[in-house]
Amino acid sequence: MYGGRQKSTTLAGNDTNISLVKEYCHLGHIITADLDDKTELISKRNLLCGKINNVLCYFKNCDPFVKIKLLRHYCYDFYGSNLWNLAHNNIEDICITWRKSLRRIWNLPVCTHCRLLGPICSLLPLKYELNCRSASFIVKSLSSANRTVNFVARNGVFFRRMLSPIGCNAFYCASFYGLSVADLDCIDKHLAWQVVQQLEIAPVSDSLSVIKELLGIKFNSLYMPLLNDDEVMFILDFMCTS
Question: What is the mean pLDDT of residues 58-77?
Answer without folding.
Answer: 91
